[in-house]
Amino acid sequence: MNQDIIRQQYEQINRGELDAAVISFAEDVKTHGRLIGRNGFRLVLDDLYTTFPDLHQEIIDMVAEGDTVIVRVMVSGTHKGVGKIPINGGLLVGVEPTGKHFEVQQIHWYKLHDGRIVEHWANRDDIGMMQQLGLLPQAPTPNQKQL
Description:
By secondary structure, the protein is of the alpha+beta class. Helix content is about 25%, strand content about 35%.
């Protein structure tokens, strides 16, 4: 069942079992329409764990139909490393660790074929993450006057 594959992958990622987690990706997996392959996803996960060693992704909602699985997750971590590849919108490449914690929601959309993820899309709150890490100013609240 496709939902079980995705759920298991999140559990493996949360335990830091990255080698096991990447097996669920097809060799020729695409993300946002670009071919990055299984090894590309391994590099992404390595960089995420370098940047956020305590990375955690909790599934809030999951919907599946046919070969499609969509999950809404709460992602959290503490910025303790320097990003090297342009993930998270490329906003953390070369940025010194702030030591601050973040927690944002993301939506991931997967297409599976023969028990492997063949396509992936994500909608992330990179701006919210950067604000929580102290790297961007907070958005004004409705009660604050604009200057």
